[in-house]
Amino acid sequence: MGLLLSGLLAEPGLAEKVALDPSQWGDEAGEKCVSCHAKASSGLAAQWRESAHHAAGVNCLDCHRAERSDPDAMVHEGQVIATIVSPKDCGRCHQKEYEEQQGSVHAEAFTLIEARLPALADHVGGPVMRAASCDQCHGSRVRVQGDGRLDPATWPNSGIGRINPDGSKGSCSACHGRHGFSKAQAREPDACVRCHSGPDSPDKEIFEASKHGMLYVAHRHQMNLEAPEWIAGRDYTAAPTCVTCHMGAAGKLPSTHDVGMRNVWSLNSPVSKRQFLVVFEDGAKLELPEDAEIPKRGAELTRLDGTVGRVKTVAPPERRRQAMSMVCLECHAKGFTEGFMNQFDAVVELFNAKFAHPARTIMDRLYAAELLTPTPFDEPIEFTYWELWHDEGARARHGASMMSPNHAWWEGMYVVGRNFYARFLPEARAIAGEHAAELVEAVISKVGAHQWLNDPQQTSAILGFAGEGGR
């Protein structure tokens, strides 16, 4: 664990400066690309001319060049190139960032849903919906046609976990839009909202409703977004952005392209669990829930993609929390930070105990009794359950994590409770029929937070009740 911990606490600084070797970069043949594309794709050429790449003498061919043996290699105007510039290509210069990104939860975004969520898009919608929706954020598995051209069913795509023809995962241009590759753009909250918005990941809406979002809007001109270095508490103090908390340098905490490194909870799952972070010898990472068997250093473990890796170190949830708190401490006192974290944890634990565990137990019992078909999303209760944790449950948990009272309650836990009591339980009881007592009520009766259902004396003035005697 020591290696990982020392890395998290290393002195922050710039991404390593790229030393340009004239024999490798600034290929004269690349000038022909520019002269042609300045006419055929003038906007593209203009973006490149305004970029740090142009200032450093890096041109089109330096990034798009390929080996003839590459799966997606093609001959274009006498040059062997590839359409996709993958993270592996970027890693020729930006090695540190590439290694961090390849081991991140972003790089696994496609793998995480490949065998799980597409049932919604494929069946409830239609197969073409995956390319237009899920894959645009999570990434596609890009297929190559025989002549090196990319299959239009899988390309264009800049999903954060895209599986590239060279075997690398992800897309740097998901955040650093081509062909400008701006640091300032990636530091803006708007860089994240293309995917982190909407019912299941409402981070845009939550950030904008929070005190942090209010400060950012009011003081954006003080954010120093174009700065070469960008260390919270030193280079800017006006407000945080998504990058500040999840990736940015702060105090002695270095920046990272592993965007999930500092997260403790799984907030987009049916039941949230604290997560251990397993780091493998080759740099890959895997999150394991707190109730899983945690491997020891040197152990071999199967990863999400089916490959086996040797464990280098394991970071416990407490260490990950400490890393996130280091960012908070640049602007907040220790007691303030600890108090907020306790409030956040309490909301997640409430969701788990009162709604998540009972709902999942009831669904498991209905499936086991063969009262539900094994086909997903062919019965109303499956949509109710899905939305309970995936939509409103996510809003409540994310709202608490990012300080939006409205999303934590009215758009979050209140909707969870309303749909649990007014939709999920009635639907489950109707399905269970004469077995409702053992399949549904036996679950609810064990949870103290639901006992108000059996206490007619617990009245509420908000509904107009005045206690004994009625309205």
UniProtKB/TrEMBL annotation:
Name of the protein this chain belongs to: Cytochrome c-552/4 domain-containing protein
Lineage, top ranks: Bacteria, Pseudomonadati, Pseudomonadota, Gammaproteobacteria, Chromatiales
Keyword Signal annotated: yes
Domain Cytochrome c-552/4, chain residue ranges per copy: 28-64
Entry superkingdom: Bacteria
UniProt-listed InterPro entries: Cyt_c-552/4 (IPR023155), Multihaem_cyt_sf (IPR036280), Multiheme_Cytochr_ET (IPR051829)
Record's keyword terms, sorted: Signal
